[in-house]
Amino acid sequence: MKITIDLECPFCGNAHSVEVERNDYFDWQFGGMLAQNAFPYLNPMEREQLISRVCPKCQEKIFGE
Fold this sequence. Notes:
By secondary structure, this protein is of the alpha+beta class. The protein contains four helices and two strands. The longest helix is centred in the last third of the chain and has 9 residues, at 44-52.
């Protein structure tokens, strides 16, 4: 079952979301699993959104392409 995680960027305040499998989210959030292991189907930018809440546009500004 997929769930949508709604996030707000701490830099620009824009809302964004990431869709993940429910069990994977709980493994990561409450089970201590690393994001790259819990969400192998997400790209690095999407995983960073979950970890830091920073939106893709701000990630590009901070880290470059």
